[in-house]
Amino acid sequence: MDKDSGPAASALALTVIALMAAQLFWRLGEFPGLHGDEAWVGLFALRLKARGLYTPHEMNTYTGALYAWLLPPVFDRFGFSVRSLRLVGAVANPLAWLVLWGAVRRTAGPRAGLVWALLAAASGIIVLKSRVAWEVYALQPLLAALTLAAALRLADGGGRRWALLLFAASLLGVQNHFIFLSLPLALAAAAALLGARRPAAGLPFLPAALVNVALCGALFAVKPWLTEAGWPAVRAPLLAAFWLSPLAALAALPAAERRRGELAAFLASGRIAAAVPWLRRGLFGLLAVSLWFHALAFVEIQSGVAVAQRLGSLPVPWALALPLYAWGAAVLWAALSDSWARLEDGGLGLAPGAALLAALPVAYAALFVLFRNTSSIRYYVLPCHVLLAALAASWPRRPSLRSPRALAAAGAGGLGAAVVLALAVLGPPDRPPLRFRVGWHREKSHDFLDKRPVWEALEARRLCMLRQDDSMIDIPFFFRQVEKETPDCDRSRPFRAVYCTDCSRPPYILLLE
């Protein structure tokens, strides 16, 4: 692309994002099948509507009620259904894609924005997992995109409105799920590491980053101690403090910025200079541990194979899976290698915002293991968004990535991943469920099976009295009862629902009277 190709690159990127959004809304209520945790969130939203905000938590103390709190107006407007349950995320995720595209485009140019859109379109966790009505998939991408965009603006000298956006989006992100704290921490770590190498790169953002970590850390420390029984007595003052705390952080920011000179002197001191080699070794060691736990899972998820297996029960043959794994590994290597190089030179030649984004993947990858040492797919939402944004921004300045051979390999890998994701959505809904591994974690696709044959069987047999066993099938059944009652059901015939691991035909769920 030449210098005049910016509008064309932007138009193409927006077209790709529009197509991603269109596929997200297509069959939103049908694919994948309703998961038990999704159904729980929908039923929890009804309890919030009836009882008010009776708890600060969602399913556990490290998740918050924000997503469920947003659902009742949607149910009132569009009815209680799987599609309505997933609609908030279906709106929020395309907004996240647009925000990230805008941030990458502003930081590295229109061609980098186009690369971001193409990488996102080939990422299973971005394209398909955005359908799932869990707080990590529905809201975290948008909150992360706003946090990252605000941080890059602040690094480049943005005003107080960007600081307020940083504080508010980060706080909501941590309230939504504690794993979000990894992003404010990684931003602060990246700024400090850059500042130790080249103060002009890290110091513009470091005071705001430290205030943000303190703000989010306070919520992280307090929330687990709140109980449902004690919540009513403290709800009003704590909610007021929660909503006002970003403004309080904004008020504290000038005092932190006045200490920038002290920060610069500290980072430039001989003690820090002597410690830098040890800090490098420590960072490398932490990164190595994190990659030991998470690299394989990231590759499997970024390739699209694990996501297609989980949501669509798609058996991907090894002849296709291995090249896709190679492509996922290349994405990981390309993002981390450039990030390490930028940390080594302090982002020399880059504007502070571009240097911060370039340094972020290594800082984030190294810290991620402190939050999760298991490989459930949902935990990789933030790493995938961060690494792909940084990789896209690095593309224009890396001749090796723009060579014909590299472009052909990247195009083939991205196209292969997109084909696998399309097959997962377009294929028959009655595929047999799969058991497989993602990194160190055992996964199965049973929980995302199409439940419609089960509903039809229940209605045909007039069954509605479930003997609850606390299985992942029970909660979708209760969701279905609220959505549509079984006509003329026979309440004298209780039944159980269990997965059938030996069945060769759908629905792969047995109804046992």
Question: Any key phrases for this structure?
Answer:
mainly alpha, two-stranded antiparallel ribbon, 22 helices
3D structure, described in words:
The protein is mainly α. The protein contains 22 helices and 4 strands. The strands form 2 sheets. The protein has a two-stranded antiparallel sheet. It has a two-stranded antiparallel ribbon with strand order 3-4. Strand 1 and strand 2 form a beta hairpin. The radius of gyration is 24 Å and the shape is globular. The relative contact order is 0.12. The model has no long low-confidence stretch (mean pLDDT 90).
Secondary structure: elements and pairs:
Blueprint: H1 6-25, H2 36-51, H3 66-78, H4 82-108, H5 110-121, H6 124-127, H7 135-138, H8 140-155, H9 160-176, H10 182-197, H11 199-202, H12 206-222, H13 231-257, H14 260-268, H15 270-302, H16 305-312, H17 318-345, H18 352-368, H19 381-394, H20 404-426, E1 435-438, E2 441-444, H21 452-461, H22 474-483, E3 496-499, E4 509-512
Antiparallel strand pairs: 1-2, 3-4
Helix pairs in contact: 1-4, 1-5, 2-3, 2-22, 3-4, 4-5, 4-8, 4-19, 5-19, 8-9, 8-18, 9-12, 9-13, 10-12, 10-17, 10-18, 12-13, 15-17, 15-18, 16-20, 17-18, 17-19, 17-20, 18-19
Outline of this structure?
This protein is mainly alpha-helical and 513 residues long. It has 22 helices and four strands.
Quaternary structure: single chain
* Residues in helices, as a percent range: 55-70%
Main β-sheet, in a few words? 2 strands, antiparallel
| Unreliable segments of 5+ consecutive residues | none
Query: Radius of gyration in whole Å, from Cα?
Result: 24 Å
Basic shape:
globular
Arithmetic mean of pLDDT: 90
Beta-strand percentage?
under 5%
Q: Determine the number of helices (DSSP H or I, runs of at least 4 residues).
A: 22
Taken in chain order, the helices and strands follow as HHHHHHHHHHHHHHHHHHHHEEHHEE
Determine the N-to-C terminus distance.
Answer: 66 Å
Q: Class by helix and strand content?
A: mainly alpha
Number of strands: 4
Q: How is the largest sheet built, in terms of strand order? A: 1-2
